[in-house]
C-alpha cells in the first residue's frame, strides 16, 4: 500500500513536471516559426512521448548571448541551440522558398566545421516530411488548447494568469522579444540566403527599342547595352543573374550558362524589383534567353561563389530574346549607297521627264540638233504614258527611301537615324538631282531610259491600274498648247535668249494679231498721206516732188482731200517727159487705175488676202459709216 502510494505520488510529480515544461515551451514558442520548428523537430523525433527538458529551453533568468537581429527583415536568421545534440540538430529543418535547409555542421576535408547550411533541391520526400511536420504542429496545438480549456489543469500551471494572456500579443513584438532574448548561449548564427522567384521582367533602357515577338517576349538587339528590371521576390543587392538557352523547370540548377554574370545595380533594389545592366549576348542556339539567379553570400564575389545558379522557369514573362542585325555592316553600307543613288535618280527623273511634255519633245525631235533629236526620240515612247511613268517613278522613289531609312535605323540609334536620313534624302536625294535634271533632263532621261523601263515593269502591277484610273478621271495628257496670246507673249519674253531681231519679233507679233485687228487700227490718216490734185501738171517740179516722196502709189483727189478719184502708180510716169508739161488728168484718164474702198471693221487677215491676190491693188481706202449725218466720210 505504501509502495503504491509512492508510485502515485511519483507519477503525480512527473505529470506536474511535464505540465510545467509544456507551459514554458508553449509560452515561449507559440506562434513563432522558429519555435514551432524546434518543437516539431523534437516531437517528431520522440514521437510525442514527452517534451524536452526544461533546461533545454532558455528562460528569462538565463543570461542571453543572442544578437539582436530584429531590425533586419531582409534575410532569415536561425540560431543554433547549443543544448541540442547532433542527432537532434540534424532533424531540424526549415523551408525557405520550396527547399529544405538542414542546420547541420558539415565538415570539410580538413575535418574543420564549416558551419554552413547544406542545401538540396526539393523532392517528393521533402514534401512528405513537410506535411508530417505540419500534422505534428496541429496535434501539439490541439493538445495545448485542451490544457488551457481544462480549468483544473490550468490551476496546476506554475505561471501567472497575465502571462497566459500575453500569449495573444502580436507575433512581431512577442516573438522577437521573448524568443530572441531568451535564446542564450548561441554557438553561431547562420544566415540563409533567400531563393529568388521572378514574377516578370521589363526592358528599361536599350540602344534600340525592343521588338515584341509573337508570344509577347521582348527581343533586344545583340551586342548592345541593355538595362533590365526584374520583378519578383528574394531580390537583394547580392542577387546575380546569368543567361542560358536551356529550358528547365523552376528551381533546377543551370548547367550550361552563357558568358557573363551580372550583379544588381546599386541603389536599384526594392522589395519587389531590381535593375541589371549587361551587354545583350548574341543568340547561339536559340534567340530566347532564360534567366538563372542566385544570391551571393556576404563578402564573396560572383567568380568566387560556388553556389549553383537556379533556373527561373520557361514562362513567357520571364524570358528575354535577342536578335542580330539584318546583315553585315559592309552589305548594309553598300545598300544604303545604292538606295541613296536610286533616290536621287528617281527624284531627278520625276522633274526632268515630267517637265518634258509631248509637244516640246515633238518640237525638239523636229527642230533640235542631231543629239537632241536622238534624246527626244528615245524619251517619247515612255513619255506618251505620262500617268504610268509618274506612278512608277514615285513608287520607286518611296520604296528606296523607306529601305534607306530602315537600313540606317539598323546601324544607328533612332535620333541619329532620323537626322541623317532627313539630311541625306533632302540634300542628296531631292535638291541636288532636281537642280541638275531641271537643266539637263533631256540628256539624263535618255541615258537612263533602260532603268526607267525596268522600274515601270517592276511596278506595273500597282502603277498601271492607278495610271488608268488617273486617265479616266483626269483625262489623257495633251501637253502644252499655246494660243495666239501665249505664243505672242512667248516670243516677246524670250527675246533676250533667242536670236530674233526686234523687227522679227514685231513681225511675228503682228502676224499673230491679223485676225484680231481691223483696218481702222493700222490705217494712215488722210492728212498724213502724200496726195496730188487731179489738176496738177506733170512738169519737172511735180516730178521731182513725186520722186522725193518715195511712194509707188499716189492717191489723186478732186476738189478736196477726201474725194479720192484714182491712184497714180509711179510706173505710169516712165514715158512722161517733164518738158511736155502733161496734165495729170490726161494721164489718169489714160490708165484709169481704180480705187479699193473698204469699211473700217474689216480684219487685217482679209485685207492681207486681198492684197495678196492683187486684183484690187495694194492700197485701200477706209470708209466709216457716219450715223449722225447723211452719207459717209472717207478717211
Automatic annotation (TrEMBL):
Name of this chain's protein: CNNM transmembrane domain-containing protein
Family: Belongs to the ACDP family.
Pfam families: CNNM (PF01595)
The CBS domain, residue ranges: 523-584
Subcellular location: Basolateral cell membrane
BP terms from Gene Ontology: determination of adult lifespan; magnesium ion homeostasis; magnesium ion transport; positive regulation of gonad development; positive regulation of multicellular organism growth; response to magnesium ion
Principal localisation: membrane
CDD domains named among the record's database cross-references: CBS_pair_CorC_HlyC_assoc
Signal peptide (UniProt feature, chain positions): none
Keywords, in A-Z order: CBS domain, Membrane, Repeat, Transmembrane, Transmembrane helix
TM regions (residue ranges): 329-353, 387-408, 414-432, 444-464
Membrane topology field: Multi-pass membrane protein
PROSITE patterns: CBS (PS51371), CNNM (PS51846)
Tree of life domain: Eukaryota
Molecular-function GO terms, alphabetical: transmembrane transporter activity
Keyword Transit peptide on entry: no
A cellular component term, taken from the record's GO annotations: basolateral plasma membrane
Amino acid at each position: 500500500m505504501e509502495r503504491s502510494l509512492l508510485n502515485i505520488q511519483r507519477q503525480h510529480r512527473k505529470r506536474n513536471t511535464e505540465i510545467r515544461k509544456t507551459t514554458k515551451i508553449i509560452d515561449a514558442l507559440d506562434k513563432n516559426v522558429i519555435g514551432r520548428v524546434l518543437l516539431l523537430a523534437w516531437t517528431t523525433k520522440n514521437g510525442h512521448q514527452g517534451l524536452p527538458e526544461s533546461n533545454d529551453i532558455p528562460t528569462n533568468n538565463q543570461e542571453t548571448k543572442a544578437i539582436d537581429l530584429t531590425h533586419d527583415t531582409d534575410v532569415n536568421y536561425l540560431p543554433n541551440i547549443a543544448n541540442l545534440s547532433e542527432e537532434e540538430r540534424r532533424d531540424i529543418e526549415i523551408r525557405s522558398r520550396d527547399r529544405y535547409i538542414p542546420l547541420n555542421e558539415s565538415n570539410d576535408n580538413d575535418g574543420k566545421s564549416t558551419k554552413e547550411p547544406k542545401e538540396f533541391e526539393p523532392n517528393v520526400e521533402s514534401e512528405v516530411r513537410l506535411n508530417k511536420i505540419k500534422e505534428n504542429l496541429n496535434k501539439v496545438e490541439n493538445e495545448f488548447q485542451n490544457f488551457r480549456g481544462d480549468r483544473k489543469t490550468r490551476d496546476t500551471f506554475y505561471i501567472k494568469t497575465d502571462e497566459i494572456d500575453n500569449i495573444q500579443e502580436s507575433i512581431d513584438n512577442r516573438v522577437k522579444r521573448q524568443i530572441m532574448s531568451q535564446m542564450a548561449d548561441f554557438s553561431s548564427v547562420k544566415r540563409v540566403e533567400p531563393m529568388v522567384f521572378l514574377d516578370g521582367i521589363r526592358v528599361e533602357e536599350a540602344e534600340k527599342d525592343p521588338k515584341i515577338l509573337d508570344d509577347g517576349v521582348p527581343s533586344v538587339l545583340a551586342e548592345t547595352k541593355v538595362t533590365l528590371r526584374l520583378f519578383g521576390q528574394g531580390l537583394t543587392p547580392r542577387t546575380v543573374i546569368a543567361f542560358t538557352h536551356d529550358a528547365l523547370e523552376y528551381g533546377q540548377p543551370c548547367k550550361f550558362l552563357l558568358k557573363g554574370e551580372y550583379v544588381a545595380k546599386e541603389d536599384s533594389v526594392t522589395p519587389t524589383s531590381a535593375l541589371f545592366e549587361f551587354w545583350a549576348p548574341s543568340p547561339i542556339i536559340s534567340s530566347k534567353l532564360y534567366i538563372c539567379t542566385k544570391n551571393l553570400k556576404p563578402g564573396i564575389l560572383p567568380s568566387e561563389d560556388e553556389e549553383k545558379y537556379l533556373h527561373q522557369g520557361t514562362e513567357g514573362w520571364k524570358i528575354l530574346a535577342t536578335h542580330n542585325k539584318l546583315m553585315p555592316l559592309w552589305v548594309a553600307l553598300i545598300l544604303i549607297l545604292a538606295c541613296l543613288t536610286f533616290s536621287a535618280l528617281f527624284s531627278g527623273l520625276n522633274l526632268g521627264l515630267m517637265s518634258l511634255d509631248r509637244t516640246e519633245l515633238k518640237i525638239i525631235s523636229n527642230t533640235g540638233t542631231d543629239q537632241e533629236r536622238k534624246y527626244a526620240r528615245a524619251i517619247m515612247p515612255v513619255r506618251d504614258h505620262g500617268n504610268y511613268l509618274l506612278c512608277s517613278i514615285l513608287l520607286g522613289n518611296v520604296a528606296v527611301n523607306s529601305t534607306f531609312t530602315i537600313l540606317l535605323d539598323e546601324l544607328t540609334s533612332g535620333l541619329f537615324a532620323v537626322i541623317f536620313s532627313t539630311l541625306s534624302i533632302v540634300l542628296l536625294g531631292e535638291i541636288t538631282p532636281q537642280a541638275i535634271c531641271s537643266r539637263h533632263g533631256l540628256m539624263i532621261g535618255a541615258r537612263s531610259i533602260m532603268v526607267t523601263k525596268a522600274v515601270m515593269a517592276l511596278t506595273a502591277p500597282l502603277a498601271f491600274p492607278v495610271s488608268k484610273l488617273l486617265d479616266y478621271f483626269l483625262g489623257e495628257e495633251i501637253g502644252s498648247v499655246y494660243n495666239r496670246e501665249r505664243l505672242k507673249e512667248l516670243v516677246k519674253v524670250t527675246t533676250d535668249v533667242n536670236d530674233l531681231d526686234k523687227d522679227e519679233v514685231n513681225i511675228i507679233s503682228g502676224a499673230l494679231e491679223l485676225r484680231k485687228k481691223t483696218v481702222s487700227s493700222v490705217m494712215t490718216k488722210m492728212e498724213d498721206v502724200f496726195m496730188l490734185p487731179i489738176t496738177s501738171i506733170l512738169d519737172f517740179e511735180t516730178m521731182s516732188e513725186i520722186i522725193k516722196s518715195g511712194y509707188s502709189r499716189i492717191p489723186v483727189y478732186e476738189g478736196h482731200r477726201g474725194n479720192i478719184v484714182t491712184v497714180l502708180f509711179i510706173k505710169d510716169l516712165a514715158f512722161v517727159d517733164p518738158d511736155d508739161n502733161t496734165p495729170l488728168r490726161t494721164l489718169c484718164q489714160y490708165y484709169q487705175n481704180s480705187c479699193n474702198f473698204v469699211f473700217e471693221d474689216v480684219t487685217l487677215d482679209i485685207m492681207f488676202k486681198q492684197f495678196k491676190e492683187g486684183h484690187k491693188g495694194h492700197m485701200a481706202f477706209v470708209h466709216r459709216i457716219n450715223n449722225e449725218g447723211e452719207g459717209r466720210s472717207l478717211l
